[in-house]
Amino acid sequence: MRVQIVLFDGFDELDALAPFEVLRRAGEAGADIQTKLVTLTDMAEVTAAYGLCVRPTGRLEEGELPDLVLVPGGGWNHRGPRGARGEAERGALPAALARLHAAGMILAGVCTGAMLIAAAHLLIGRHATTHHLALDELQAAGATVIHARVVDDGDLLTSGGVTSGIDLALWLVERFAGPQVAVQVERRLEYERRGTVWRRLTAS
Question: Does residue 204 register a pLDDT over 60?
Answer without folding.
Answer: no
